[in-house]
Amino acid sequence: MKSLKDLQKIKDEVIKETNLRHYKEGYKVIVAMGEVGLELGARKVLNALAQETYDNNLRDVTVLMDGNMPIVEADGVVVKVVAPDGEETLYGKVCPVCAKKIITEHVMKGQKVEDLVITKFGE
Prior knowledge:
By secondary structure, the chain is of the alpha+beta class.
């Protein structure tokens, strides 16, 4: 049997995890989760982005999925980062390690991860 304090701690953790999926005013990080994206490992990338956001307690970052991004297999897993000012950056061939770098470099420091940037789909 858990104590009331233990239950409150569990509740707080669940709320914190759930809040990653609700829109906030800060950065939006969107993973292409269509059929191609899923085949290429988009779920692992989504989980890595969410975990890095959670681990760094980034309350103003929303991690989302989009099944309608028109990606091609050459792009690999695609992640779109939308800054608070509306600027969009597309990243291609994103793996879980790259996902963590996108959070720590782009979202936290404002520096794009240039070696992953794609200027348009299929490039």
